[in-house]
Amino acid sequence: MHSTKILTEIIDKEVCVDTLKQYLENTEIVNVLNFSAHNMICDTQSNVSIIEFYIGCFSIIFSF
Q1: pLDDT (tens digit per residue) in 7-46
Q2: Helix, strand, coil shares of the chain as percentages rounded to 5?
Q3: How would you label 36-50 residue by residue, b for 16+ Cβ within 10 Å and e otherwise?
């Protein structure tokens, strides 16, 4: 799945932001070759995470 599709699924409420980490752990993510995507996502408890997707994995690089 392309990383931008995840954002679309969040906006369309197909993915719940409160369970996003579990969703990402079970989903292979791809990006355009030689690029990385960073997404800042806020859950319903106002927790904010900056997520970097790379080669089928993800890393939460900052969370507050």
Answers
A1: 888 889 998 888 888 887 888 777 666 666 677 888 888 8
A2: 30, 35, 40
A3: ebebebeeeeeeebe
